[in-house]
Amino acid sequence: MKRVDKTVKMKKISKGGKFFFLAFDQGLEHGPSDFDEKTIDPEYIIDLSTKMRITGIILQKGLAQKYSENFIKNVPLILKLNGKTSMTKTEPFSPQITSVKEAVEMGADAVGYTVYVGSERENEMFEIVGKIEEEARDYKLPLVIWSYPRGHAIKNPKSFESVAYAARVALELGADIAKIHYTGDKNSFNEVIKAAGRCKVITAGGPLEPLEAFFKDAEDIMNAGASGMAVGRNIWQHDDPIKIADKLATIIFDD
Amino acid sequence: MKRVDKTVKMKKISKGGKFFFLAFDQGLEHGPSDFDEKTIDPEYIIDLSTKMRITGIILQKGLAQKYSENFIKNVPLILKLNGKTSMTKTEPFSPQITSVKEAVEMGADAVGYTVYVGSERENEMFEIVGKIEEEARDYKLPLVIWSYPRGHAIKNPKSFESVAYAARVALELGADIAKIHYTGDKNSFNEVIKAAGRCKVITAGGPLEPLEAFFKDAEDIMNAGASGMAVGRNIWQHDDPIKIADKLATIIFDD
Amino acid sequence: MKRVDKTVKMKKISKGGKFFFLAFDQGLEHGPSDFDEKTIDPEYIIDLSTKMRITGIILQKGLAQKYSENFIKNVPLILKLNGKTSMTKTEPFSPQITSVKEAVEMGADAVGYTVYVGSERENEMFEIVGKIEEEARDYKLPLVIWSYPRGHAIKNPKSFESVAYAARVALELGADIAKIHYTGDKNSFNEVIKAAGRCKVITAGGPLEPLEAFFKDAEDIMNAGASGMAVGRNIWQHDDPIKIADKLATIIFDD
Amino acid sequence: MKRVDKTVKMKKISKGGKFFFLAFDQGLEHGPSDFDEKTIDPEYIIDLSTKMRITGIILQKGLAQKYSENFIKNVPLILKLNGKTSMTKTEPFSPQITSVKEAVEMGADAVGYTVYVGSERENEMFEIVGKIEEEARDYKLPLVIWSYPRGHAIKNPKSFESVAYAARVALELGADIAKIHYTGDKNSFNEVIKAAGRCKVITAGGPLEPLEAFFKDAEDIMNAGASGMAVGRNIWQHDDPIKIADKLATIIFDD
Amino acid sequence: MKRVDKTVKMKKISKGGKFFFLAFDQGLEHGPSDFDEKTIDPEYIIDLSTKMRITGIILQKGLAQKYSENFIKNVPLILKLNGKTSMTKTEPFSPQITSVKEAVEMGADAVGYTVYVGSERENEMFEIVGKIEEEARDYKLPLVIWSYPRGHAIKNPKSFESVAYAARVALELGADIAKIHYTGDKNSFNEVIKAAGRCKVITAGGPLEPLEAFFKDAEDIMNAGASGMAVGRNIWQHDDPIKIADKLATIIFDD
Question: Which pTM was predicted?
Fold first, then answer.
């Protein structure tokens, strides 16, 4: 039996066991419509990231390569291996566009892959993530699975049933961290976290929310037992991203 | 000619030639709806397994990795190589998510793969299991084929004709153990077992049944000539799983 | 140029240039409905095979492995590399479930693969058999192509036109032996055999026939110039299989 | 930069820069209906080929292997890597059934592959021929691309526009020789040949034509600037194939 | 972390940081209908290219191989790895027909691949370009991504939203140079260029335009901040291509 100890990298992308990731893969997933005059320049957000108390930045290979000098020594890199545009609407699928080996060469401290559970193409994504998990183990690299219920068979992707199933799928597939939707409710989310067992749970971000509601959710999420959050637009679409991130860090790290 | 002797591992996962496996792959196949407050925590069931007179536990890679320390020295591991959720209903197919090599690295004593015979995608599963069988032989690892008639062409998946065909398929594909449905009738199941020839036959579990009926079936199954059973919900959904498992062990091992 | 001489194995699976194979792959292709109380046990037929004057037995990997000790020293093994059940009816296709390398490791003296010419998936089977032929040449192993016209475009799979085309396909694809349908008529079958050129032609079996008609066909087939026959049900579904096989051997070997 | 010089093999399959190939892949593409009592035997045509002033014979792997001794020392071999039957009518596609490596082992002096430009599966054929071209360069083996406009989008496969496009496709894909339809007109065909640039152009054969028309076309084709012809049925379906081939050689080699 | 410095090749295919490529892949993409009596001969355009102040010529493998001696010492080679004809209209897809390794062997200074963002087959192209990007990094070869919004879901492929998204996709996928449509408007195109971040932006060509409009666009494109242009028909469909190219060079290099 081969022992695989991912502790070194798990510590690198966390603080006190908690994860706070800046999500910045929207350029591919949503396109420039998410950006304004400042955020359209990747350098702006990437430079900001070095001033935040985050434990990692989520990037696609292009930004990780072209802006490496701006962040690589200061911010751990969670490299997302899959991506697609939002231009077309077919049954959800996540093509792999970066190999684990390539991620390692870019200095990644963890890799991520999105599984759309319940999609008609779920089986293809399971095959892909199966190989990614195996390769990540060889490199002792944490695996983050974005586990989202989606596809025409999914009526309510954020219901307790859907989210709890998605969390469990991440555990069963070998994820170290499950990035899932928040159910919107502290109690049900606590159950979701139990379903994920020893797989750490962090919440995925979403579109811009009013500040008060956003921080309230963050507190509930962490109180429900989550291990952290991945946030993008709710940070960098604000006027003072550093301040928002700082407040969020206080909630996540509970300091 | 290359001789492949799987005796060492076959002995490890049996007792007196009989197999008693605790099935615990439902977290992926069915989702958390199978669990209650206790069973939602994988550790609860996995720890229980070390106190049962079972000859193996069936797990997906995620649990096998994350809970290895809890069971690996005490309970043989049957690693299931395929998995899917029950969220979508397309023609049945089993994506492979774990390689035989990876299973070996996790300390598996046997590997399992599900074939949905009669599915329109049967041919793809046959190709996959063909390679798994070859690789398992190289590692001298027993192969368990879950052989279930399923798909829109299958009218009655538990009829004698369906089950007997499924059993024979497992033999022809090189399985060491066929995990199949019980026909519900001792006599017909004895014929099913003959159709499987030198491939050992064990029955698959199912949803919770009344205790009396469950044990009656277990006795009939073993009397019909089966080599064992794989049981999940009928054990760990009960209040006293250890007691149920003990009674079942008595039936299976005939002691 | 690399010379590939398959003479050693071709001699092993023939007698006086004639082939007489016992077909026993029905357990996968048709299921247990082909069997009765005796034949349901693979050992019964396999043991019988050692007492027949046959030049080979056709088996799937499962039987070849599990019953190796019963026949491997006495009966040459023609290992069938593909297989499917008859449970579903889609456009015909032959998934490969055993590699040539694995066949060699099992002690095979020849390998077989089924091509459904005229199927919409013909192109996939041609790609597969192309690689099998190449690998079989490397191992100097004869290749038997089951060449059957089938699919919704095929009106009459046993017409002279269909069978002659199928025979030629086997030759063009590099088969050493073409296993094809009998046209039912000595004269037309003689033309079929010419179309196959230096590829040996043997006939495929079929469901149980009255003895007289069966032997009459066998004589016509051999008189038409065939190199042999592969027979299954017409032998082992009879009360006295040894006797039938003996009579057939007399016809095939012309002794 | 790696220099690849295919001169040796290009000279071997030509005479004075002109190509005259005997096409004999019809057994697979059309089936035995192209043959009569004599031509049904591959040996007849292959033996004839050794007596013709041709610069190559086009064969599938099966005939190349089984009849090697009959021609390999006297007639250069153009091995066709793809093939299909005419039994089914789906959107045209060319499965590869022989590898370049295998062709080399059979003593091939050039390899051929068919691209159906305009087919809905054009993209798959382009991927396949891309790899074949790369491998053929490694072996310094000329690549002949059969470039035929075909598929439900193609209204007139022999129009100037279609044929000129097909010729250019062969050049762009890296063919050394484009085997294309004759437009039926010397002037337009001269334009087609220009579109192919430094890729040599030879014409594909077709069904039997009256002798006078056939030779007139041959003269026009060569006068238009073609580098040769590949002819099958118009030679071996005649009573005196040697005589026809001789006359054609005179036209092609202009001697 | 592995550092990949593509500076050497990036300098080779630029002048003062600007790119001026002669596009000559139309023979495959559009067919001979783009050509006249002069341009039908690839040698004519390729020879002209050596007399232009361009920083690279875009070719498919066929022309790069067959006309290598005409340009390889004088003009940098941007090898296009994908191609298709315009004969059929299915959901857009780019089959890869040349490997990066093969491009290197042909002396390529950069490689190109076309991504049709928004196509139903976008995911397949993302997988392909993911591997190309990885391989190109190994060879320190610049990657040009043709990033075109296309497919039945795309209403307006040249709108600001479409083009900006396409530009960002190229950056995120790891392109060094994005070859995109011009929005037709200097101000919006400046925003597009910002969305591409550190990925250089060049414009794709198009059908022949009136000279005045063409040069006006070129000036606007360069003033908007583009890094260059790839032009084909607007150069070589003119009577005096050298003169047009010279004028364009003056605009692009701003000398």
Answer: 0.97
